[in-house]
Amino acid sequence: MRAAALWCGVSALAVVVQAMLAGALSPTWVPDLSLLAAMAAALVLGPAEGLVAACLIGLGTDMLSGSLMGQHGFVRVVEFVVVRVFAGQLDLARAFPQVIMALALSALDGVLMAGLSAVFSATFPLAWSEVTVLAPRAFVTACGAPLVGCAAVRVAEGWGDGEGRQEIRLETRRSVL
Amino acid sequence: MTDFLRRIRLPLLFAGLLLLTLAFMLIDRDPESAAGSGWFRSGLLEVTAPLQKLVTAPSEWLGEVWTEYVALVDVRKQNAQLERRIAELEEENLQFREALVASGHLDRIAGMRVGFEVPLLPSEVVGQDVSPWFRSVLLDRGREQAVLTGMPVVSDGGLVGLVTATSPDASRAMMLLDRRSAVDAIVQRSRARGIVRGTGAGEIEFVFMVRGDDVLPGDTIITSGVGGVYPKGLRVGAVREVHVERSEILHFAEVEPAVDFGRLEQVFVMLARGPTLDLLFADDGDDYVPPEKDAG
Fold it and tell me: A9 falls in which pLDDT band (50, 70, 90)?
């Protein structure tokens, strides 16, 4: 529980950094640290506290965005479960699979955001030209995945609770929920 | 029984969180909430505004250090003042030309000027959108300063966007770049009418139905006033390139925005909203009385 609370704090800081970068850089080059934080939570935290942490990370992002409140929260919860599903099948402890996973999550993020916006905001046109913005951004985000994963492992190892502490690794062969 | 509950604990939590976020979305899209009188969005903005101001403070400070001390202090300030003055004069000139083109009668010009005498409230941009899917900015003025949902936001360059949420001391404005943004606009030269919309990729485009010759590169696009959201004659941008597909009914032109959205620092909220939004948000507890227009 301590690790989850601390990871929420670190994630809040990550969202704040993302907001700072959004003010200084073009959207193309701002990594989606909120997405990476949720992904790392799925890899190192327990299912219950990880789910809550992912949801809180998403809600924090909603507060600093023009989206509907809960939109990023919803997306992060779904992404959390997707990462848990794949972590049960693939070895996500290494950097390269994490990068691929982050790329896939960026695509999923887009589909979910567009879908939710279409349902709740009635109109949400998507154009092919957006790929020029979103693809580099997804790539920048994916490159940061191993770093964020590493930070999450450090937090979990350093602040994990009692018995579970020794077992906290990027586990890859466990049940989804 | 307890064993069963333990087994379904996580799926229940998953479903519960999804339902919670869906409930948030439903509350947030409620018209009352959108109008600014809803406690939900208002409360969120109240919490977010100081936080985001705090977040952007270091980068703003760095930017200020650079521009105020590294760059030449007086020359830059003087230049900014002169640029602002030129922009004001250009805007005024544009509106006069707009009135001339529209009717050619001097009394109509006078009417136009009266129509544009809307009080402008200066406001600072205190935060940008963190999500790549949306393009909005957080402003440091809210309902206490008579800012209401639906009021247009402009800068010295031209139209910036529309206020979409307010709290007592802050508001959020959707920029023209946002994919949800659509502005009824006309080409000032040919009066060709169309819609300016955000592409989502940091650009805006003008979608129109008339012949391609009526829209040429370099043409100025201004708001048409139709739709009852934005007043007529606000500068939106200039046509960069026209794409006309003979097989398509709708053509589009790339537009260079009149405003540099990447460097927005100070904007002005027009303290009067269009009739459509006034009707839409009629019951939002609006206690602000717009100034009376000069009958002459």
Answer: confident
- Kindly state the DSSP code that residue A166 receives in the 8-state scheme: G
Under DSSP, is residue B248 helix (H, G, I), strand (E, B) or coil?
coil
ipTM of predicted complex: 0.81
Instruction: Go through chain B and tell me how many residues it has.
Output: 296
- Domain hosting A80: range is 2-167
Taking the C-alpha atoms of residue A146 and residue B190, their distance in angstroms, rounded to an integer, is 55
B212 lies in which domain range?
182-257
**Residue B101, in any domain of the structure:** no
Euclidean distance between CA atoms B184 and B73, whole angstroms: 41
CATH of the domain at A30: 1.10.1760
pTM beyond 0.80: no
Number of Cβ within a 10 Å radius of residue A28: 16
d(CA B203, CA B76) in angstroms, rounded, equals: 28
The CATH number linked to B191 is 2.40.10.350
Of A24, A63, A67, the CB nearest to B134: A67
The distance of A158 to chain B (nearest Cα, Å) reads: 25
Flag whether A172 is in a domain: no
In a domain, B109, yes or no: no
Nearest Cα neighbor of A26 from B198, B258, B261, B126 is B261
Question: B93 φ, ψ to 5°?
Answer: -60, -40
Q: Which residues of B touch A120 (CB under 8 A)?
A: 25-26, 29
